[in-house]
Amino acid sequence: DAKTTQPPSMDCAEGRAANLPCNHSTISGNEYVYWYRQIHSQGPQYIIHGLKNNETNEMASLIITEDRKSSTLILPHATLRDTAVYYCIVRVAHSGGYQKVTFGIGTKLQVIP
Amino acid sequence: DVKVTQSSRYLVKRTGEKVFLECVQDMDHENMFWYRQDPGLGLRLIYFSYDVKMKEKGDIPEGYSVSREKKERFSLILESASTNQTSMYLCASTRRPDRSYEQYFGPGTRLTVT
Hints:
The structure holds two protein chains of two kinds.
Chain A: E1 9-13, E2 18-23, E3 31-38, E4 45-50, E5 55-56, E6 61-64, E7 70-75, E8 84-92, E9 107-112
Chain B: E1 4-6, E2 10-13, E3 19-25, E4 31-38, E5 42-51, E6 54-57, E7 64-70, E8 73-78, E9 87-94, E10 104-105, E11 109-113
């Protein structure tokens, strides 16, 4: 699996957009970028994933650069409840078998009132 | 919305007790997983199931067993609880065969074995 690099921590003002970067310079052509988050003392939460096109859902937007070597998760209007550790993961989506979720260090996002 | 529920948020058990952790999902997902999460060790897969009555060992199955009698329910059993099984236990589910990495997690059960 391609390795990812994320900043260990970030702050964001409440109501502003939170832009969380992720570098994955060794990504392969068939690997997707996935984002999860984990709020303190809760289970991880799947947010979004994408291959090469930008993706948007009710939670966030995912912007992937044209060379696919990096991506940005955007929370358009951060709230205090978005304070969490955010994990960027690169994995093959359709392996034909089960896939266990594994996390790296992630980015601890602190949303400030 | 996918909903994965776990029977308890917090549980305290004594060494040697048999412990049952229950997980239920309401999205008709084929795949279900049990993980444990410990500081510094991240998520570790204990067991998973890809269908009713089917189960496969994950990375750390020792001391655990599982049961899947119905599609929506996946149980984790600690046959004889030990203090090193004190942990956060997380259940997850996902569809098969695609989207296997798009997993939906329950809130977790924090188990303390004394």
